[in-house]
Batch of 4 targets.
Target 1
Amino acid sequence: MNPEELARRQRLRRRNILMGLLVAWTVILLGRLYMLQVVMGDELSEYAAGQRLRKVYVPAPRGQILDRRGQVLATNLPAYSAYLVYTREGLDPEARRLLSRILDIPVEAIEEAEAELRVRPVPEIPVRLKAELTPAEITALAENRDRLPGVVVEPQPLRYYPGSTLAAHVLGYVREGNRPWELKGESGIEATYNGPVQLPDGRTVRGLTGVDGQRLVEVDARGRPLSDESRHLLLGGDADRYAVPPKPGSTLVLTLDARVQKAAEEALARRIQELRELKTRPCPCPARNGAAVAIDVRTGAILAMTSYPTFDPNDFARQAFMEPSDPRYDAVNRKVYQYVHWNERYRGKRVEGPTRNLAIADALPPGSTFKPITGLAAMLRGVLPASAYCGGEFYFAGRAWQDWGVHGHVDFDKAIGRSCNVYFYQTGLNAGIDAIADVATQFGLGQLTGLRDLAGEVQGSLATPAVKAELVARADPNSTESERRWYAGDTLNASIGQGFHAFTPLQMAVYTAALANGGTRYRPYLVQEIRDPQTGRVLWEAKPDPLNTVDVPTAFLEKVREAMVTVTQDNGGWYGTAYGVFRDAPYVAAGKTGTAQGGTRDPEYENHGWFIAFAPAGPGEQPEIAVAVVVRAGGGGSLAAGPVARAMLDAYFAGRYGLPANPETAAEEAHEDAARSAAVVPSD
């Protein structure tokens, strides 16, 4: 090969190598472009968008709670909060001082928020600086927007209870959840229905807590969101693609009647104050606590439930959103602390705290309100005394058992109407404790009522030999067999509702309702419906749930009902123990007074006053409502609890029987009448 041919071939080889390299580079470049543009295009696009977008959670409104007539008991108020979000730039000292002046919070609180933001695992969750901003604060933040990087204002619904203390023990209260805008129910309906609800039929529906939404907002280099117009201009359809609307919590419709509920609360609080100031015997009374329940006897639906003292759930809701640096925080926190760490005493003895629902969480001896049970037990055994002489004492086993008065010759009606202990001492001995306990069990006394809507119900106790042995041993592990043994004297005490009996007001209301409706014991309930918050469609509706029918002949129940009517009436020669309370009532009520002795050795008068009733109870009428009221250390049943029950019944019947159409007016007038004349007839 000559030199020229060799040189030509070398040039050709170099050109081919160069062309190969160019082709290979081109293929690699095109492949990379394909990967970037086609395979990873969407991912990289989102990544790029993420550099200028920020996810914002949209709090879901908590579900509303309504009464049976649609009155709002719990809802949400629109409000705005100031938050700090993460930005690379952060706040400089001058910005912190400016922000401190606008929000009236310390600079140290802002620095703590910045530090918290830096260590948060989820950077898009902001740190709240201050809730419930005033219009002036919102305006000032907007005017200084350029000087406050990372400071944003977002809407945040606040839990609100329009009735303040109305139905507080039923509704419960909320506390702060895991996120700065989140609430969780801590007690009452707010707690029971906080999350998803498992229905008795197996389905699950959303509870009061909704599902938060989210949206993407365009932010500038300092983390400040741009306007909505800019967001749509830059994001186009993506703005809506990434937006997830919040889903509000479900709406709950309660069985409560706000009119009767309000009457119960006001009458109970008012009566307790009156008892403390009364100058006639046995008062002035300590009257430290009280509770009341009203039930629809036809269904078991709870119409009213209250406990004294009470609290304002708005204070808990406000505390949940307030930061400790907020100048309003101390006052709100002080109220909540007092509610939770209640330490009030009256005349040297503890008053149960306002957050405790005594209607389900406090069991007390029922006193003479138990006597219908003793009478039914004796009827079933065929040993009901035709009559007895009440001379003020009953002699048994060498001891005189006291009556609260002298009633002369009494039959069953008068023994109920005048609440004669002597008659029921003999009746209880005739029936025996086993028969008494059997009837009481059928009426649900000394056991959980089956209420599903509230937590914290206590069982109480029904006096039996086994219960006595257990309670005595629990109180004194060193007690002797003799001390734990059941004696005939225990039967005497149990026959008149003393001794080892202890029932809650809700149990007493259920028992009274069963007496009224002919013997059906219904499960009490508070939630009537769960509704879709947006369409109003009923997702679930409660139905009456009969737990049992008492095994007692109708004639016996009717005999008891007729005897209980005498309690509120002028019976031609003698008055029932609650005649003074109901003498002006335009309808007929059946009732029973009860005074449960809290300890005769106590220097103070500690008798608890009970009253149970149902109405209407006139000839041919079908009862609709049953009530149970108790006032701790209130002195006596008719005196302490009677006026409260009368106010509740008149509020329920407002507009009927010639009563004022306004339930508030009807209840107020009833309370005045009942309180003025409650003591005109001697009673227990």
Target 2
Amino acid sequence: MNLTLCGLVLVGCSIGPTDLPEVAPVSGTVTLDGKPLNNATLTFQPAVGRPSSGLTNKDGQYKLRYNLNLTGAKLGDHSVIITTYQEFDNPSDADRPASPELLPAKYHKKSELVAKITNGDNVVDFDLKSK
């Protein structure tokens, strides 16, 4: 009986979550006045469900993560927020120091940015303007 119980527990541990939504890979480039925007956080928020987020590198490139184990974003329409504001230095990520907001409110607090995520690879670029 103990062997059967142990086998059931192991089978239960090997099954992944079944309640995850369908997601697709999302990547792209963010520029500000034509120049790559480094250390900007992007948040893609679907109408229902959890958001996906990503961070731009020095070339302005990003890839979204749905969670620690899954890349991409939920299929469908999303509102998008892009911000450079970082309140504190992150000791676990020396490449991401505290930073002020460099972007106009129309890209974060009052964002009107949207994106539609479909099956397959999605490339969503943003050409932002400082004025």
Target 3
Amino acid sequence: MGRQLKFLVGIAIIVGTVGFLVWTAVDQTKMYMITVSEFLGSGNAYANSTVRIAGKVAPGSMVWNAEKRELLFTMVDMAGIPGEVKVHFAGLLPDMFAEDRNVVVEGPFSDATPFEARAVLTSCPSKYQAKDGGTAPGYDQGNGAGGGKTS
């Protein structure tokens, strides 16, 4: 076997190994971001995958057991599409978690009830919205050509 052939075989093995490692890493960490209505209508489309489901905590559905650190709640679609997903989460209660607030839950796809979340992410969109008719502090709309941030 010539020296050049050994070199090519070595390069092929290295490239193949790196490609395999990248493929498996991407496959293990990829997840789908879907809404409650998409989750309910998906059937088994996301089987064997991790999903993130965006929705809103239904008012009156939150049950927090501080001793066991277990959270049970119902998520509804943010757009008001009928349907709900019951969620179970074991862990610390997220800081801004409250009823009627937008949340994202993450976990392995399953049609079992409740959905077992590994993580619960909260958001508070009102914190970053301008008041009615107002603009964000330090923001000048300029000459109507798109405006810009003032110094």
Target 4
Amino acid sequence: MNKRELLELLQKEVQGNCSPEEMARLDAWYASFDHRAKPAFSNEAEAELVRARLRDRIYRQITADMPDLPAPVQPRKIGLFFRIAAAVLVLLGLAGAVYFFRPHKTAPPQAATLLSSASPTGKLLKVTLTDGSEVWLNAGSTLSYPAAFNGPCRDVYLKGEAFFEVATLPQQPFVVHTDTISTVVLGTSFNIKAYPELGNIRISVATGKVGVVSGGNTLATLSQDQQLTYDKPQHTWLTETKEAGSANAWKEGRIHLDGVSFDELAAILEHNFGHRLQTGRTDIRKVRFSMNIITSHQIEDVMRIVCGMTQSRYRIREQVITIY
């Protein structure tokens, strides 16, 4: 994010006109100035303290090349910062209009021009993007992305599950779009599970911080070992602390399930083993499954564990597994 974009966003924030994605970009910018090991936004009170501290840092950064400006006055209220920022915007406009406010047009990528990479059933795929970011696609997943990141954001589109190691570019946030929510980062590593057939989307952060936005809401800012699960039908979400390694263990052929639904278990078996799982027993559909799956094993090995947990039997006919 350059100075012009930053000041425009600050001005829109004080006017209450920021979109959720723009708020997430500001949060990501604030977070990029904070190097503490603990999460900066664990609650609202702490968030306001962190915001005030980071705004001071931002003020000093954007005025560093303008020594004639008076020293910033310590604000009594958060709103004073924005009046200072607005004044700085005017001064920047007078002193540097040619550079900061010159015509600047970047066309968003068209769907027809996006490249696409897909991992088939039972296979993983590693994709290296032009900015140096690396993406591991889990089985049955698709990533769409432009040939080059020329816009203000690095936008990519995910169906399925992927682990991202994003190259750090503070001036150009990286945005992962799924069918319902978007994840905004500057440079970090995280896992997103967003198979379209599932009723939820899960984001787990391995390093750094990410912002999560949906429709008209900024849902959360997540730090290392924090996880957000978004319920698509209910439009609700839950954040919790989860060790990130288990969420992306699938890269090494191990899938760790921690209380997942029957539908999520079925999606995992279909994408990794090519078998569709079904049952007519309502009691089995209510079971929450916690187990480890080794993707190099045979499907029969997995089903023995599943049936041991549910006190049931199974049969396989033409790639369809029926539990009864």
